[in-house]
Amino acid sequence: MAEPLLPSGFDELEQFVEYWVRDTNNERWKQRSKASMEEIQRFYDHMLARAEDAIAHLDAFPLDDMPPASERLFKLLLAIAHVAMAVEMHGQPIAHRAQLRSDLQMTQGPWPFGGSSKEQSKRDLEETQ
Fold first, then answer.
1. How far apart are CA 20 and CA 29, in angstroms?
2. What is the mean pLDDT of residues 82-93?
3. Once rounded to an integer, what is the mean pLDDT over residues 48-62?
4. Of 25, 48, 64, 89, which residue is most buried, by most CB within 10 angstroms?
5. What DSSP element (H or E) covers 121?
6. Nearest-angstrom CA–CA distance, 24 and 106
7. pLDDT value at position 61?
8. Which one, of 50, 51, 70, 69, lies nearest residue 60 by Cα?
9. Are 103 and 111 in contact, with CB atoms under 8 Å apart?
10. What is the pTM of this model?
11. For residue 79, what are the contacts with CB-CB under 8 A and spacing of at least 6?
12. CB–CB of 108/115 below 8 Å?
């Protein structure tokens, strides 16, 4: 039996896993910058409707030890931050008269799924302890 993409009860969000689940801020930003406004709006609407349920589910797990399906759900929540500004402020994929910040590469971000891979984030954390 194949492993579920998302935890039980979040089946309707599986359609977004392949495109929006990414390991780092930069990867999420790249996906967001390639998406159309219709894709962004659709993802935003579906995720926002389930965000509180997702947060309640994820509260049961430590950030560095989530089951894979829950980790994917967490990454979908992180992707909301990348689409929210387009939906809530700009009403279009990019700010009017602004270029996408594709040349800005974040090297650090919120642990564990920020600017580097999960493995690198763990190594970075271990070095600071």
1. 10
2. 85
3. 96
4. 25
5. helix 118-128
6. 9
7. 94
8. 70
9. no
10. 0.79
11. 16, 20, 21, 22, 28, 31, 32, 43, 47
12. yes
Burial bucket for residue 36 (CB in 10 Å: 0-12, 13-18, 19+) = exposed
DSSP assignment string, 26-63: HHHHHHHHHS-HHHHHHHHHHHHHHHHHHHHHHTTS-T
Instruction: Write the CB contacts of 68 (distance below 8 Å, at least 6 apart in sequence).
Output: 3
pLDDT exceeds cutoff 80 at 129: no
Residue 58 reports pLDDT greater than 80: yes
pLDDT at 99 over 80: no
Q: Which pLDDT belongs to residue 125? A: 52
Cα of first residue to Cα of last residue in the chain, in angstroms, is 40
Q: Could you tell me if 82 and 43 are in contact, meaning their C-beta atoms sit under 8 angstroms apart?
A: no
